[in-house]
Amino acid sequence: MGFSISAISAVSVMSAVRQNVKAFTLLAVLTSASGFVWTQGAYADTASLVVMNAETVSTEASVDTATGSAAQVLALVGSWQLVSGRYLNEKHEWVDYQILNLSAIKVISARHFSFTTMKNVDGVSQFWAAGSGTYQATATEYTEQPELNSFSAAKGAEFVFSYAIKGQELHTQRVENGELKEVEVWQRLD
User: Fold this and answer.
1) How far apart are CA 9 and CA 30, in angstroms?
2) Which of 25, 38, 119, 184 has its CA 20 to 30 A from that of 84?
3) Which candidate, 25, 53, 55, places its Cα nearest to that of 40?
4) Three-state SS string across the chain, please?
5) pLDDT in tens, 94-122
6) Dihedral through CA 82, CA 86, CA 89, CA 92, nearest 10?
7) Which residues of 28-45 are buried (b: 16+ CB within 10 A; e: fewer)?
8) Among 121, 117, 189, 172, which Cα is nearest to 149's?
9) What is the pTM of this model?
10) Cα distances (angstroms) measured from residue 169 to each of 149, 166, 186
């Protein structure tokens, strides 16, 4: 079952693009009654339009339109800067990212994610962690499948996050075996 957004939404999207003076990327997915998806990438005054079969876009954009809103899922696409977070360590103690002086940027494209996290030690940035791979998402769940990582995730490992986008913030929570393991807030960069 596909997801449908009215043509009025496309007009609103293009109007917003024309009014924005900064060059940015806007991704809108529209499914017509005939089962085609229109993916529109807009760069300020220049727009390109690509028409694909709905199944292809669902696979390539990792969007599960049967279980969620394609527009909500595609709102994940962009660059994000870590605002705050905490994780549950092996001693079952919560560790706040602010105490560790962590900073990170995560980039989410139509099919891939990538992040790099640095730790500030005495004014010097030191590598903390990085990962990249593919992901899948529904309207409420985001699952990363790392292909490259610095934290020894096994091949085929998945990290499942519940998420909510609140304004320009991405709020995530990761649960493993019924236990909350990680909570993060990210600010949209673009």
Assistant:
1) 9
2) 25
3) 25
4) CCCCCCHHHHHHHHHHHHHCCCCCEEEEEEECCCCEEEEEEEECCEEEEEEEEHHHHHHHCCECCCCCCHHHHHCCCEEEEEEEEEEECCCCCEEEHHHHCEEEEEEECCCEEEEEEEEEECCEEEEEEEEEEEEEECCCEEEEEEEEECCCCCCCCCEEEEEEEECCEEEEEEEECCEEEEEEEEEECC
5) 999 999 999 999 999 999 999 999 999 99
6) -170
7) bbbbeeeeebbbbebeee
8) 117
9) 0.67
10) 25, 5, 5
Residue 180 CB contacts under 8 Å (≥ 6 apart), including other chains:
88, 173, 174
Torsion of CA 48, 42, 61, 82, to 10 degrees: 160
Our measurement of the distance from residue 79's CA atom to the centroid of its chain's CA atoms, rounded to an integer in Å, reads 8
Give ∠ CA 23-29-33 in degrees, rounded to 5.
150
- The count of residues in the chain is 190
Token couple for 51: 């028409």
